[in-house]
Amino acid sequence: MRNQLFRAPGRTLLVAAVAAGLALTGAAVPATAAPAAPSAGGPAVRVVAGDRMVTAAWAKVAGATGYTLRIGTDRSLKKARTVTTTKRVVRVRGLKNGKAYFLGVTPANARTTIAAVTPKVRVVRAVATPGVPIPVAGVTAVPGPLVDQVTVTWRGGGRASKVAVIAGSNVITDQRSFNSGWVPATTRSVTITVPPALKPFLGAGSGNPVWVKVVQSNSASKAFGAYYSYDRKYRPSPVGTWAFAKAEPAPAAVTKLKVAELNIQSFGATGSYSKDNQWAARAPRVADYIDLADPDVLTTAELATNLTVSCSNSEKYDPYRCAPHTQVADLAKRLDRLKLAGTDAYARIMDQMRTYAKWNGRATNGAHVFYDPAKATLLDHGYFSPALAPSQSFKNVVGLGVSNWDGRNAIGPDRWVSWARLRTVDGGREFFVVAAHLPVGGAAAVVEARREEAQKLVAAID
After folding, report:
1. Which residue has the higher pLDDT, 133 or 14?
2. Which helix (H) or strand (E) holds 165?
3. CB 230 within 8 Å of CB 237
4. Partners of 378 in beta bridges
5. Residue 415 has pLDDT above 90, yes or no
6. What is the DSSP string of 225-266?
7. What is the rounded CA–CA span in Å between residue 94 and residue 408?
8. H/E element, 89
């Protein structure tokens, strides 16, 4: 079938043919009419067919006071439905799936007429069942025009009744998620704003990226989600697109520091791995990885005080002298420019073992702070035991059980927190860095332990 240019007195009519609700087997047939390259004075038209509906969009025509959209089943559009509007996006509902429709758009009182024709659209007699949307492609995200905004653009897609952008704090967008709300299926760009409640975690003030997906729906459902659903004809774009939200202009004389965090995996936890992934072989790779990232401040998790080699005979009589043989000390020696804020974690662990016999083997310190002496000066440093400090201990500490540190099941050893107070070398601004690795798991006891530990940590920071 061919597109036709119909001429009426004083105007030019653009006609395109589409099939509503394409649900095809075999070779994929796009349900979107690609926009034409407009001739002088004329715009292109985009058409997206969905479930029992068609969405049409077109560019603004200079001088037009409105537009007339006609849609019918014959090329002449003599018996067409007519929609008069001042908008440039129209949804036409109540169509029959699998049936071919023709659309035409004319401007009202325009100084110039529409003089462009869409490319040929292959009209297919499809199964009268709406299908899952055709995937979008080329999704990009950049900082938006205003603070805490991200602008997302894409191409392609189709067989949809609406489209939206869903965003979140991880690559899947299923955590701290928000969305743009549904917009017409012909849309190819949306600007989203981080909600006030999420600004501590996402966007300009947080320093964290906003991960995005473009989602299409070909059903009446208004629900959003991060995952594909055939039953409700819902398709998100692939994972992996992100951007930093637009930030306020930086004030003058601000020292910028690159801050990173890395879970190292402890010496003991990887002891049963293949030799290539045990600490002796892995340590140089970890150091190279950190040096390549080149942070000014680094916090770690699971960088343990386990001994990596046996102490000498003389050191065995004074176990505090074994500190240079720990995993944390080993990594500190390998880094190019970062310095460990506190080197006495091993001694502090031993002090706790000796002071509280039941803590033997139930305390660990894998959270450490490293900094670049060329960028910051260390003013103070210390450790914080969530179970024993400050002054008031957790429940059941007196009646310590055999398997855990606070008398509850499934909670590992007391994970110490490290902190450092630093001052920037050039600007003289002071700031705190806190490294913490909270208990992991979804059990009620673990969740409660995290809550209690977080409360104590906030009090300690204050």
Report:
1. 133
2. strand 162-168
3. no
4. 422
5. no
6. -SS-BTTTTEEEPPS-EEEPPP-PPPPTTPPP--EEEEE---
7. 61
8. strand 89-93
SS3 97: coil
3-class SS of residue 291: helix
Contact 432, 461 (CB under 8 A): yes
What does the block give as tokens for 101?
A: 């429709």
CA distance 27 to 30: 10
Cα 56 from Cα 280, distance rounded (Å): 63
Asked if 454 and 438 count as a contact pair (C-beta separation under 8 A), the reply is yes
84 pairs with which residues across the strands? 68
Structure token pair of residue 202: 């996402």
Distance CA 307, CA 362 (A): 16
Taking each helix axis from N to C terminus, what angle separates 327-334 and 345-355, rounded to the nearest 10 degrees?
Answer: 170
More confident residue, 427 or 122: 427
pLDDT of residue 133: 92
Question: Is the separation of the CB atoms in 105 and 56 below 8 Å?
Answer: yes
Q: How far apart are CA 93 and CA 23, in angstroms?
A: 17
Beta strands in 309-424 (DSSP E): 339-340, 363-364, 369-371, 376-384, 414-415, 417-424
Rg over CA atoms, the chain: 31
Could you list the beta-strand ranges (E) of 307-437.
Answer: 339-340, 363-364, 369-371, 376-384, 414-415, 417-424, 430-435
**Distance from the Cα of residue 441 to its chain's centroid:** 22
The type of residue at 89 is V
Q: For residue 213, what are the β-bridge partners? A: 166
Burial of 305 (0-12, 13-18, 19+ CB in 10 A): buried
Give the model confidence (pLDDT) of 375-402 as tens digits. 999 999 988 877 654 333 334 443 333 3
Best CA proximity match to 381, nearest among 353, 410, 348:
348
Tell me the C-alpha distance between 202 and 211, whole Å: 9
C-alpha distances (whole Å) from 339 to each of 276, 323, 375, 383 are 26, 16, 11, 17
Structure tokens at 460: 């300690």
* Structure tokens, 27: 């070779």
Distance (Å, whole) CA 430 – CA 437: 24
